[in-house]
Amino acid sequence: MRTSYPLPLALALEEGRRSLRRRAGLEGLLSGLFAGGLLGGFLSLVLLLSALLWGEAWPGRLPLILGLGPLVLGGILGAARGYLARPSDLETALAMDREAGLPDRISTALEFWLLEERTPFQEAAVMAGLDAAVALDPVELFSSPGAQERRRKKAFLAAGIALAASLAATFLPPGPSLPGGASPSRGPASLERASSSPSLPGGRKKTAAAAPLSPPGTRQASRKAPSSAPQKEVSPDEEERNAARGEKTRAGKAGGAGGAGRAGKGGRRSGRVPSGAPRQAEGARTGSSAGASGSTGSPGGGAGKPGKRKSPPPPGKRKKKGPGKPPSPAKGRQGTKTPLSGGAMAAGTSRMGGNFSPVTHSWKTMERGGEEDSGGEDQDQEVDEEKRRSRQRGGTQPSLRDRRPPPSRDLGLSQPGDQPGKGRGGPTPPKKDRGTAALILGLPLPDTIKGLPNPGTSRVEQERTSPREAPVPPGAGPGPSHGEGREPPLPAGSAPAGESGTVERYFEKLRGGRGPAPKGAGR
Amino acid sequence: MSDLDEAKVSLAREDCARFQETFKKIEDEVHKFIVGQNQVVAGVLTALFTGGHALLEGVPGIGKTMLIRTLGRVLDLSFSRIQFTPDMLPADILGSHVLEETAPGKQEVVFRRGPIVANLVLADEINRATPKTQAALLEAMQEKQITVGRETMALPDPFVVLATQNPVEQEGTYPLPEAQVDRFLLKILVDYPREEEYHLILERTTEGKEPEVGRAASPEDVLWMRKTALSVPVPEHVRSYAIRLVMATQPGSPYATAETNRFVELGASPRGVQGLVLSGKVLALRDGRTSVACKDIEEAALPVLRHRILLGYEARAEGMDPDRLIRGVLAAVPKTEA
């Protein structure tokens, strides 16, 4: 078997391999730049967003290093990997065939050349391959830019993103200080400004994102700062509880900083609204105002209390809800989005059933208000859990757990003048217009209750208790044993001390002198 | 270069050129009568020169029968046409023993040959016959011989079965069993002609200008072309590629694609690899090359493999057909081994 190729074939192969490696190196470089650029861009964007949203100030040139490091590293590694890979003869020949549009001529010649004996067709194939190899220019073959054009564009795009993002993350100052000049870590003064100015120039809502950076002492101080409404005394326990609740989200913290008492809760709730920082700021404001009015016992603070909701709020207290802030239409809309601001309904509209405007009052807000007044965080979690389950089942599902038992079907004679509902079927339960369970997964059907404008929420209350042992009075003996139902025999030595003689006599009489009493009887 | 035998090279090149020329001549002659359908004509000729059989599938009226009849005339081959019907019996195809009066007063049982004894057999609407009758073709197609009673008779060489079937009107038909479908080297889909081809068809068939079809090759030429095609070498990497392609249609094989594993119930058999390589040889010679390339295997993949792949129920539900699956396999299987 031959081991070497004819000269034209060997030369073409060597030249082709070199060009192929060069192209592989270039392609590896572009691929590495693309992958590294994506990674660097992602890291830089994360840093940039964290700086803009949470005011994190990154030290030195960390974003630049994190952004451009993967780019450079990826390019180097990709180029090295591409260039250092050494393709075999057959791979080189196939690549040359493919690039030149030859139907496997060079690769076939390569293969048939190594045979000892060749048929005429094989000889002809080798000859055809040699002719093709002589006619080819491998350098030109592998340098066509068309194939790399798309790869190059992608690599440059990724590198550009990485570069821009890392530069932005490096040189842009942290977020809150951008337009308004309120630095995130500037303590209570900045918070005062944040709570007093509803929006920033440029349309951005000011976030109270600086709250986590401020120490607890300054938070205490800042609570008092914005409240023009009277504040109630906060006990240490309540303060601790509020702090724990408020720490759930940053908006919650902001709410906790802005107001006392329920402010933390308000902030936490509004923090769930997924529209980002502006909504959080709104939540903070709502929380603070709700906390303030709640301290005075106004319906704004006790927005969810069902008992209180029925009585119209005193008009004077309604005005305390937004001190110094004239209500604007935009605010009204935002107010409906936050649960606590359901209490804001009290400021402008009647709470009686006839005035259920979808703008100012929704079933959802009433529900949540009720939850809030009950004060149980467990109930919140249960409702959240129920919502999550409903989503998993494909949409809001009707609540089936509060079904009433069916009316009695006992036949009876109806009296003249009876109401139709009290006929044979008995009194019918109050009609509820319930939604139907979603038959198609992913297509939510609202669960509506007639008379209310918006979809209601299913709320499931469950008492989670574990089996407990029944209390046993101290003198009670063991319960009846299972089995035959007879009394168990007296255990030996269980007769009271004074009655042992009586028992012994009883046994003697029972046996009629057949034998001695059982051992231990009467002892 | 000095190691190459110039005489051998020129001999191979001559053979190759002769093959190419004859192939082209036959094609041209057939196209005098058949308008368009280049792929179909090339496919039928490929089957003829590899010694295989072809199954033509298409709606009625697009010239399937006419093509095969024309081919018989062009190649000067004995031609017989069998119209398959549900009441047809194997004896109607193979032939049977009959009592014949050989001399006055003397009768003898002789074997009367059926229509299958011919060079070119057109089995028209083969799926209309019962499986029993279809099975009568099995031995003939594979062994090139028939057995009736105790008598076995060799069929003439070349022997090619070109069957047609209609994809519509499936009521009252008997789909060919897998064993029989596998014996067809190629399954060729015959489509409607293009617009400009309709003009030519009308010109040739409705104006009394029926073209004269002459003889382009003899049966000996056909046999020589078969022999030449068999001598075309297949490089190792091309052979490996054909094997990987066929294995990629078999669910559970290392080369199987995700679609194969999901949709295919039965992949292509080893006859599939044979068909790929044989067809590749003819295609290489037709293009004037002396060895098979991966491109030839790719070109042969659809007609060779499409009837050897049995898709499962899920494939029907998803609208997957064998051609789409094979295209996916062609795109997925690399030409060089990883």
Descriptive report:
Chain A has helices spanning 7-54, 62-84, 89-100, 105-113, 120-135, 138-141, 146-171, 188-196, 216-224, 236-246, 250-258, 263-272, 277-295, 306-310, 315-318, 329-337, 345-348, 363-374, 377-392, 500-511. By secondary structure, chain A is mainly alpha-helical. The radius of gyration of chain A is 42 Å and the shape is elongated. Residues 177-234 and 246-374 of chain A have low confidence and may be disordered. With 338 residues, chain B is an alpha/beta fold. Chain B folds into two domains: 1-86 and 116-212, Rossmann fold (3-Layer(aba) Sandwich); 232-338, Helicase, Ruva Protein, domain 3 (Orthogonal Bundle), CATH 1.10.8.80. Chain B has 14 helices and eleven strands. The model of chain B has no long low-confidence stretch (mean pLDDT 88). Classes of the chains: A mainly alpha (523), B alpha/beta (338). The A-B interface holds A 6, 8, 90-91, 94, 98, 103-105, 107-108, 111-112, 118-128, 130 and B 1, 3-5, 8-9, 11-13, 15-16, 231-233, 235-238, 284, 287, 289-291, 293-296, 335-336.
